[in-house]
Structures are given as C-alpha cells and as structure tokens.
C-alpha cells in the first residue's frame, strides 16, 4: 500500500514540475512581446543577443537535466512496480479485494497491469464471400430466436378461395361447373342412413344421426335458395315485359318475396295433399305462443 501511494505521489510531483515550467516559459514570452521605446533599440538588440545565447545554453542544460531526471524517474518507477507486484503476489485473495476497493479499479489496474492497452476504434465488419452463404454473426452478441436466416426466400402459401387472383365468386357459375358435387353428397347421405340403421353402438348412432340431419338441412336450404332465385327470375321477366308495354317498373321487396314463396309452398302442398297437416301444425304452434303470452292465473 505504501509503495503504491509513493508511486502516485511521485507521478503527481513530476506533473507539478512540468506544469510550473510551462507557466514560467509562458510568462517570459509575454514579457518579451511588450512594446519598447525607440531609443533603447540598440541596447535591447545587444541584450537580446546575450539573452538568446544564455537561453540556448540554459535550454541545452535543462534538456540534459530533464532527460537525466526522466530516465532516473522511469528507472525508479520500474523498480517500484516490480517490488509492488512481488508484494501483491504474496497477498491473499481477500486482501487483494480490499486493496482494490481502497485504491479504486483504475489505479489498481495501472499498478498491476501497467498502462492501458488501447483498443482498436474500427469495428470489424462481418461480410459474406458469397450471397448464398449464411451471414457471419458476432459471438459476443446474442442472436434473436425469431430472426430468420433469409426472409427473402420464405415460401408464401396461397389459398385460392380468399385470393383476388382467383377472381370473384359467382354462385350460378360455380353450381353449373361443380354440379357433380351435389350428386356425391346425396350418395354419402344415403350411405350414412344405411350405416345408422345397422349401427349398434348408441354413441356412434347419435353422431351419425347428427351428421345426417346436418346434411339434410343443408340440402333443404340449397333447394329453398334455388326456388327463391327461380321466383326472382320469373318476376323480372314479367316486369321487363310490362315495362316494354309502357307500365312503371316495380321492384320486389323482401316481404313481397316471402309472400310469393308462401304462395308457391301452398300450391306444392295442395298438389301433394299435405296442406291440411301443415296448417294444423301451424295452428298448434300459434296457439302455444298465445298461451305463453297470457298472464298466469294466481
């Protein structure tokens, strides 16, 4: 500890001496720059010559002295550093930590390791010799897991159902081109019905029944859509013919369309002889709804 403190004190003393020397030189230069009277020019010239000679001799002597002092101080510092390192090697790890806390990390490193080694300012640039090779990354920095190796070569999946490149959906065009799918569906429905009758496991039977009902509902809804479209087409044809005759055009509302659908339904039920059953069921439903609306008798 004493040796390290002495080293730092000596370094401070050398810095003080150099600072005082530079201050004195600056003062001399300022004094020499001050304006003089014209009568004393010759006298000053001779004096200047004498001063210059004395300055050169003094500078030579001071340079030699400073060189000698510098070499002596360097040798002394080197000897002291060697002794300090020897003392530090004999110290325990706990004592070294205490010493580091007292001196500070900067002074401790200067004593133990000497002067700092300057790191190169220019950073290393990681490049690829070939564009297809993977990029060389620094091992000191953690790489993100989400980072992709080459995002440009990522495969993009395309669903033609939701892509604009496939064109707009036309229901009538689709049905005309893929009409065979409805035949396949009807066959599957018949197969499910047969397997449902043969099935003995109650859980599987329930699943098959649910599947059959779903397919049946889909089929019925498709039929209703087709009927609605045929009705609309027929109505449009009638309207076009009436407009040609000179009448005003009449546009169908949703309520009018429902009325037309009901009229068609009644006609079909009347042909099949199921109209009375349908009407009786409908009356029962309406009666139940009315009973629910009535207040409860207490």
Automatic annotation (TrEMBL):
Main location: nucleus
Superkingdom per UniProt: Eukaryota
Gene Ontology terms: cellular component: 90S preribosome; nucleolus
InterPro entries: RRP36 (IPR009292)
Compositionally biased residues, Basic residues: 280-298
Keyword vocabulary terms for this entry: Nucleus, Ribonucleoprotein, Ribosome biogenesis, rRNA processing
Acidic residues: compositionally biased ranges: 52-80
Biased composition (Polar residues): 15-26
Keyword Isomerase: no
Location of the region described as Disordered in the Swiss-Prot/TrEMBL record: 1-80, 116-163, 212-248, 274-298
Compartments in which it is found: Nucleus, Nucleolus
Gene Ontology BP, a term: maturation of SSU-rRNA from tricistronic rRNA transcript (SSU-rRNA, 5.8S rRNA, LSU-rRNA)
Biased composition (Basic and acidic residues): 38-51, 145-163, 216-248
Function noted in UniProt: Component of the 90S pre-ribosome involved in the maturation of rRNAs. Required for early cleavages of the pre-RNAs in the 40S ribosomal subunit maturation pathway.
Family note: Belongs to the RRP36 family.
UniProt subunit comment: Associates with 90S and pre-40S pre-ribosomal particles.
Name under which the protein is recorded: rRNA biogenesis protein RRP36
Lineage: Eukaryota, Metazoa, Spiralia, Lophotrochozoa, Mollusca
